[in-house]
Amino acid sequence: MNAEYPEPTGAPVIPAQPVQQTAPGDARISSDINVAGNAIAVSDDIAASNASNASDASVPNVPGAAPTDPVKHRLNSSYIWLGAIRVLPYILIAILVSAGDSLYELITDSRLAGYGLIVGIIIVVTLIVAMGIAMLARFISYKYIWYEYTNDEFSFFSGIISKKRVHIPYTRIQSVNQRASLLQRIVGVCTVSIETAGGAENKAVMLPYIERSAAEALRKELFTRKQLAQLGQNGDRSQTVRDTLGTGQNPEAPNTNLNALEAPAQIANDFRGVFGGDAIDTGQVTYEYGLSNKELVLSAITGRTSFGIILASIIAGLTTLISCASFLFGTTEDQIYDAAFSLISYIPTSWLVGAVTSLVGLFIAIMVVAWLITVASTCLSYGGFRARRRGARIETEYGIINHNFNGIDIDRIQSVEISQSFFQRLLKSCTISLARVASAVQDSSPESKNVSHAKLVVHPFVKVDRVNDILANLLPEWENLPASTQKLPTRATRRAIVRRAILQGGGFWLAIITFITMSILALPLQFDLLDPSEVTSFMGVYVVLEIAARILYALCLLLIILDIIGAILWRRGSGFGYDQSFVTITNSGFSTDRTIMPRGKLQMAELRTNPLQRHKRLITIIAITAAGVGNSATRLIDVEEADAQAWFAWCHPGGNKTAAPSDNPLQ
Amino acid sequence: MEVTQGQQLDPRIKRVWRISDTIVLTLIFLAVLFVPAIIFLVDDAAEDVAGVLCLVVFLLYIVSLLVFWFVITPLRYIRWRYQLSQDFLDIVRGIIVHKHTVVPFIRVQNTDTRQGPLLRMMGLASVTISTAAGSMEIPGLPTAEAEKLRDQAAEFARIAKEDV
Asked: pTM for the whole thing?
């Protein structure tokens, strides 16, 4: 416990040289000094960085200043008790499971009434002791968790027995996101994740229980240092960068579209929690927008979960209705389920109809309530949505209860995706998201889940005609994005129908499976394999099954027709286009996905043909970027051969720069 | 790039493919043979069935071996072409589904050579060219040539400039 914390010895080190402040295997710190000193160290630093904000004087740990012992930044002390509280439910469950039997006896057996108080005390004491142990453990490990800024790395230290330290060079930092659950919000802390280049190998670093002001300071510090490191550690320029980055006073962005949840979101955002601290300015905002009431509600109604619930309720409602109808008006059932029906036949039909109607009504009511809850929760999670352009980053934040903050560096955007679900298409709206390289999240604690997403939604629901405006302001670097002007030839239609309605058609295969099942079931009848006594009951079941099969066939037919319409819509709406620096690939249908990739982010390009395509002189084009986990391939099937070859030549470095006008866009 | 253009792999790769295909097929064959063997062990009366099954599986094994040796391997060899230019790597491959891939050197992150036991036996090596979104492998090249290609690719990747 008394190992000394290594200090830079001797003369001041030249700033250009990396200062390794910690020797391997010697990360332990003198406990005595630190228990006393850590609170001061933390508060000192926050005070200092606040001062630097206000007066714009010096910031601690400027690379280029005389190297001092890097300040150890601690987590918030709520790490100890908030973390320990999380253990309580588990302990309670453990007690109930292990002692549940005797507890039950205690409650039911009147002779043992007097012991209730004693048992209650024992349980409470157990809880307190367990809580104490958990807190002690957290308290000890708390002393070994800190982060610090060295000259060219950010370091995060943790672990009591097996020491763990993560070093991130400032230049490798891609985004700093934060997230807070309700409990954390009340306390005023959040979980910060620092993402590096991404991919399965590069995990995001999670810093739990950071005060909100400390998190903002951390973000600002990291990005400033990144900027500095990229410019080279030049004293004069570093000051300029600090000026441009840090001092920019936030111009109040025009809040034209406030929605109903904006006010609570504002309050929730302003409520910085017990340990929140003062807000820290993290850079200049040049563009900002939120969601209007209409956009918020519509995005919740047309969201995927909500749509799924509607679909499920429709299907479930229909099947209930059908089964009830056949129950009531069927002719053969009486013979089949004698026992059940003898009971029912005593009940007047009007009662039965009433029962069925109320059943269906209840069912629909439950579905409506479930749907409303989904809509409300989506509203809450997207409530207070803000997207803004700050310096060279795009940031979004949302959530009334759980707060999410995500940022992405402009050069880390792999592609822009504009997607339009069927409902959005009807309302002439779409969702805009930015694809990035996803980091595998270090999965240690539940509070760190879902911090890293491959896609950053910058607007969940926006009118199509506003898209260009938003992109122009949010991403001015990506000007004049090409439209999908090169359409697919008409001879692709038949292939699309075969592919979608038959090869990949759910309806088609469902019909075939149903047919095979029914044929197998019919075998005993055809070959007279049944006892005469069994024939009637079997016939009854078979007739019911046949009705079900017919309904299924109708459903399959509907699906196939939808597939065919989808295929035709796909052929008509899909296409691709490219100019000097971007390529757009659109896959249409009932819903539309448009992906825009800069040429500089195309890692590979591929043409693919199967024999049938070669026969028709059609080619599948595939553009591969590093977005998502691993990579993501955007493909467009059945492009005209000449167009595909021209695009492929464009993908080659030094190839043609613009799209040749398509010879016959619509044959 | 057409099939007629570009460089071919070293012909010795065909032997490597044949050996590795044989190993895989043999493993599958043994796994499939397991079923008749169980039938044979469990049910003495089903001896005939097991025998017929064994024969069928064995015939299938022989046929697929022949197909892989004398049809698929030569076709695969004929279809496999690569072309290294100053700025990009072009690869054409695939027997039924033709694939034509381009990797611009400006995106290449690292290049390396690999040599498994089979390749080493034949004096071959493979060159892997990796980008942020996966990698392409040129499987069979004489070791010295593979080293040269790797160095060349690394050099091209180093000097490649953005042209947008």
From this structure: 0.71
